[in-house]
Design goal:
Layout (H helix, E strand, L loop, with lengths): L2 H11 L4 H21 L10 H10 L11 E5 L7 H10 L5 E5 L3 H14 L3 E4 L9 E9 L4 H11 E11 L1 H11 L2 E9 L7 E10 L2
Parallel strand pairs: 1-2, 1-4, 2-3, 4-5
Antiparallel strand pairs: 5-7, 6-7
Helix pairs in contact: 1-3, 2-4, 2-5
The chain binds S-adenosylmethionine.
């Protein structure tokens, strides 16, 4: 799909202003400029940034209450979904502070560059989550971060959140959901991803370890 068709599809799924589109174009330019040196997104997706990364990230915007104080994106890579969501919320006049956690210093430099170019209210935390004791936030989100059982362990031990957790699960991870959820006392809702029919978005409201 050409870029214009991808932008059309994006706009028919997510309500955004012209200003948001021009910020996303700037973000796309930076991704293309730095991708070969930093391996930010798979080469096969570099011509499909709007559909494979921007729209995929943006599809959960309705799950974030714009009045919360803070949200963390764990293992953000090139900024998905954290920077896309921070941008959409900024243009909705939300004050949510985004913590963007990424262990790769090179990717963190890229994340800082994009944040500054787009004027986003983000805190780029360049650390391995294993070295962090506890993070306070209202909302946590992760896309393609780790296998599902490991994500639950990490979230449970590191994130101190009272609101929600939203996870993007690819085909393999979706298959692990039933088995993994038996090991936790959890409440969650699931829905199909709009960008990939075998992927799921899950919204977890309660996550307690079963003894
Ligand atoms: C497969 S990439 C996904 C990136 C992005 N969320 C996306 O959907 O495109 C996983 C990212 O998590 C980061 N990561 C892996 N383990 C981590 C850890 N223990 N702490 C912080 N970041 C980590 C990696 O450096 C990588 O950028």
């Amino acid at each position: 799909m050409g870029e214009l068709s991808q932008i059309d599809t994006f706009c028919s799924n997510v309500q955004v202003s012209r200003e948001t589109i021009s910020s996303l174009k700037k973000y796309e330019d930076l991704l293309i400029k730095y991708n070969s040196g930093l391996n930010l997104v798979g080469k096969s997706t570099i011509n499909e940034i709007w559909s494979r990364h921007f729209l995929d990230s943006a599809q959960v915007i309705d799950l974030i209450n714009k009045n919360i104080n803070s949200c963390i994106d764990i293992g953000s890579g090139a900024g998905f979904p954290g920077l896309v969501l921070a941008l959409l919320l900024k243009h909705k006049k939300s004050q949510v502070n985004f913590k963007i956690l990424e262990k790769s210093p090179k990717k963190c430099n890229f994340l800082k560059l994009v944040s500054s170019e787009l004027g986003l209210d983000t805190e780029i935390i360049c650390q391995d989550i294993k070295n962090i004791k506890k993070i306070n936030c209202d909302f946590a989100i992760a896309r393609a971060f780790k296998p599902l059982p490991e994500i639950f362990e990490i979230i449970h031990s590191k994130i101190n959140f009272s609101a929600k957790l939203v996870l993007f699960l690819g085909a393999k991870q979706s298959g692990l959901l039933d088995e993994t959820s038996k090991k936790w006392n959890m409440e969650y809702k699931q829905r199909k991803s709009i960008t990939s029919s075998d992927s799921l978005i899950i919204e977890v409201n309660k996550l307690e370890r079963l003894d």
